[in-house]
Design goal:
CATH architecture of the largest domain: 3-Layer(aba) Sandwich
Largest sheet: 6 strands, mixed
Number of strands: 10
CATH topology of the largest domain: Rossmann fold
Number of helices: 11
Distance between the termini: 78 Å
CATH class of the largest domain: Alpha Beta
CATH superfamily of the largest domain: Response regulator
Shape: elongated
Strand content: 5-15%
Radius of gyration: 24 Å
Order of helices and strands: HHEHEHEHEHEHEHEHEEHEH
Number of domains: 2
Length: 323
């Protein structure tokens, strides 16, 4: 049944024929006890609502299936207690490896996995110093996106994000992205109030809050919005009757699979989520294999990408001055 050597072909065929006639299936739980492997991987993501993790999960699932693993997928909903509970449960289930969609800078939550030698991806999940290095590499691309937007002439910008109380995420999280945007605004001499931050407690609040922001006397001419809120932001823009990019430019932090199909296509800055999910599972499986027979590793996807699509343009007052 296991394909072990030393069995006569005729004997093997008789046993397999009997198994087929009885609809026999090996007991995976019993196999796990013998091999100390469950052929499962745990995946913890911050929110299933985020379009970023739709691609990430597809990539992880496709690679896991190719490698012969099943996934336990946990949605932490940006909640510290859910993170803690999911990680404890995955450890109890003895998953062979762990994939963290977005690093939680709380290494103590990962201590049982680290102590037991369970592979974790990304490795810097338990190492804040390594995470800081990734942050530095990400800043360059985000600043490129912000500088491109500001270079079009926008002087009033709004940043739209969710509050995430009690959960400290990786350095390339909403706090750092806002800090880099603030630096970009300051670097071209705009006043402090040129950047407005709209911080929401729940995704459901987005449409009314964004509509109110855009209806004010000093409305922004450019919005930077986290991917979780992109769809509801677009609905709010339609509600107030604005046209992108004629009346308002839009930049999404994090790419949605449909952003390029929208008209005009939505400019995004983020990561190739599908490739990132595949690469994460592959690295965990290679760590488990620990031999040269492990499958060849795919090329590491770029950490961050800026896609300057049609939703970014000069504000109306700049366009009207052009001959």
């Amino acid at each position: 049944m296991n394909g072990a050597p030393g069995v006569a072909p005729a004997t093997r065929e008789r046993v397999l024929a009997a198994a087929r006639s009885l609809s026999y299936r090996p007991n995976q739980a019993a196999r796990s006890l013998r091999s100390a492997r469950t052929q499962t991987l745990g995946v913890v993501i911050p929110s299933l609502r985020s379009p970023v993790y739709e691609g990430f999960l597809r990539g992880a699932a496709h690679e896991a299936r190719r490698q012969g693993y099943a996934l336990f997928i946990c949605d932490a909903e940006y909640d510290a207690e859910l993170y803690r509970g999911h990680l404890a449960r995955l450890f109890e289930l003895r998953v062979d490896g762990l994939v963290i969609g977005q690093v939680v800078r709380a290494p103590e939550l990962l201590r049982p996995f680290i102590d037991s030698g369970t592979p974790i991806d990304p490795p810097e999940a338990g190492d804040p110093d390594a995470a800081a290095e990734i942050s530095a590499r990400g800043e360059t691309v985000y600043r490129q996106a912000y500088d491109h937007m500001l270079g079009l002439g926008h002087q009033r910008i709004a940043y739209v994000r969710l509050r995430r109380p009690g959960v400290e995420l990786d350095p390339v999280g909403s706090g750092s992205l806002l800090a880099w945007l603030r630096d970009a605004v300051n670097s071209i001499g705009l006043p402090e109030d040129a950047l407005e931050v709209l911080e929401l407690d729940a995704e459901e609040d987005t449409e009314a809050a964004v509509a109110a922001l855009l209806s004010g006397p000093n409305r922004p001419t450019a919005l930077v919005v986290v991917a979780e809120l992109l769809l509801k932001t677009l609905l709010a823009i339609a509600e107030v009757g604005y046209e992108i990019p004629r009346d308002l430019s839009l930049l999404s932090v994090g790419d949605a699979s449909w952003a390029a199909a929208f008209r005009p296509p939505i400019a995004t800055v983020g990561r190739d989520s599908y490739a990132r999910g595949r690469a994460a599972v592959q690295r965990v499986v290679r760590s488990l294999a620990q031999d040269s027979a492990a499958p060849a590793e795919t090329a590491a996807p770029p950490l961050h990408l800026f896609m300057p699509r049609g939703s970014l343009a000069a504000p109306p007052w700049v366009t009207s001055r052009r001959p």
